[in-house]
Amino acid sequence: MSAATAPVSAFPAPSFREGASRAQTAADSGARRATESATVLSLEDLGAGYRRLRLGAPATAAAAAPGQFVHVRVPALDASAMRRPVSVCDADPAAGVLTLVFKIVGRGTAALATVREGDRVDLMGPLGNGFPLPPAGAEVLLVGGGYGVAPLYFLARKVLDGRDGQDGRDGLDGRDGQGGIHLFVGGRTKEDLLLLDDFRALGVDVHPATDDGSLGTKGLVTAPLDAWFAARGGVVHPATAAKPALFACGPAPMLRAIDERAQALGADAWLSLDRRMLCGVGACLGCTQVVRDGDATATVRVCADGPVFPRGRIVW
Fold this sequence. Notes:
With 316 residues, the protein is α/β, with parallel strands linked by helices. The chain has helices at 16-29, 58-63, 107-112, 149-161, 196-202, 222-232, 252-265, 302-305; strands at residues 35-47, 50-56, 69-73, 84-92, 97-103, 120-127, 140-145, 181-187, 205-210, 217-218, 245-249, 268-272, 288-293, 296-301, 308-310. It has 2 domains: 33-126, Translation factors (Elongation Factor Tu (Ef-tu), domain 3, Beta Barrel), CATH 2.40.30.10; 140-274, Nucleotide-binding domain of ferredoxin-NADP reductase (FNR) module (Rossmann fold). It has 8 helices and 15 strands. The strands form 3 sheets. Strands 10-9-8-7-11-12-15 form a 7-stranded mixed β-sheet, with helices on both faces. The radius of gyration is 19 Å and the shape is globular.
């Protein structure tokens, strides 16, 4: 079920102890959730604490969709430690390879960064509702911050898989009835801008921004996005009269800014929320989010009902 049609349910807020207990029970059981023992193929240091992990995981790679995540049991931690959620950066079903990108931010990810080729890593997933694919030929705007670009790379590649002329630029620049694909990516410094060469290899136009001006526009990622809209005279494509589809993943302030712009422009947008998750399957209620439900509001679980939500639905 896509995020657009996921049911909205109201849940009581659990106490911390109750939520932790539910999370541990759900994570230990993995009830009704697929798990796979994956093999570490490579671990690449991307700099500034970021890592790209390639895993031999045929079942997970075959089932994964852009915007979904896997719950990783870190082998170097005690068996009772909670799993860590990591977005899927790419999946190659033919090769049986799953690619994850993460940043070392605590004990769990620091331990995950010590795995070696041949190690086994237990995965639960893929989990959550991912991004819908845009209409054929639509102009696609990807907006990412930090490691939020990881699921956007998977999305860009899947979009190209459905297009003619996916090799080189011909299918990306508006020729042959195809809309362009643009990545607007922001970070504190140039070291926080990830996978730029990978996106460019796909033919995606990359528009970087950094807080310190070390690469691209100096300022927030919304600066090059606003400049792009201004340069072409508005939201509607001058040749096709169509509006672009926006897909965003990153910190909450960035997502809110994209949400507000998409609503003001009347453009479709899909936002992937980054929340601390415990169980990853919706049992512990540790990642709840208030959303709009018609004229009312409701509380949903980001891990199970998201992490992707359409514009206008999140109550910021």
